[in-house]
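Question: what's this shape?

___
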Amino acid sequence: MKILVTGGLGFIGSHTVVELQNEGFEVVIIDNLSNSSETVIDGIVTITGKKPVFENLDVREKEAVQNFFKKHNNIEGVIHFAASKAVGESVENPLLYYENNINSLVYLLQELQKKPNANFIFSSSCTVYGQAEEMPITENAPIQKAMSPYGNTKQIGEEIIRDVAKVSNIKAILLRYFNPIGAHPSAAIGELPIGVPQNLVPFITQTGLGLRKELSVYGNDYPTPDGTAIRDYIYVVDLAKAHVIALKRLLENKNIDNIETFNLGTGKGSSVMEVIQTFEKVSGQKLTYKIVDRREGDVTSAYANTDKANNILGWKAESTLEEAVASAWKWEQKIRS
């Protein structure tokens, strides 16, 4: 069974490709290498013993997407990761985010609605909730005004999918994840940000290795126990496995509705300072950091109620924060050695 993974050489995408291949799926990857490297394929092969098909193309190019589906006309399911994903960058460059995250989704759906049936997994985000009024966040929480253009593209993306599903044979599962971290236990693949990391854990590991002078902690005046922002940090391999479970749910027609939505997180919030202290514990070294102003677009707190994913999908996050941070540190040391 052939599955398309867009953005399949990225952080979450590559880990999902591994889990798909381990389950016997044939994988075709689309990636434009804007925030990834073709060398990731070697890591996938190291882990699974199988090489996925790779097409270097940009899903913002409508004709390229059309030609892809003509060439690969037997795609049974699509997992769509290809998108820009940094909150801060989206505030600074909103048009890049609207072009990349919205256009690519539209072009994919245009091709999928031509099929008699299509199975679509959408990489959404907890940012669709904005600053939720209650913690932990359930799937029924009101969708607040987005705090950033990135969050807005995920809200709009979900709306587009819902509208298209009403008038086509597309079935979709929207996976709203919280904060993915870590690396495959083999250290053959992991998070590989190009340039300055936009996410906390790779910035921590790069600072721990001396590649960055110090870590900036954005604000210590939030209304939280230690003043730093709280997030739900989920191990990337746990997250990848959820995509395979969701895909099988669609392929086996076990979905209750044409569109289903699930939170993917651990159900536990950890502050920035807790993550720093966890890194210091697993690495055995002190981290240099400084407190700076809050970052525009950041919410105070976000962590998941995962009951729906646990009970309906039959998926649960297995790994602890310590295990996830330790895997990220192992990966950072390996790629810099």
Remarks:
- The chain has a mean pLDDT of 96.
- The CA atoms of residues 206 and 336 lie 9 Å apart.
- DSSP finds eleven helices and 14 strands in the chain.
- The two ends are 38 Å apart (CA to CA).
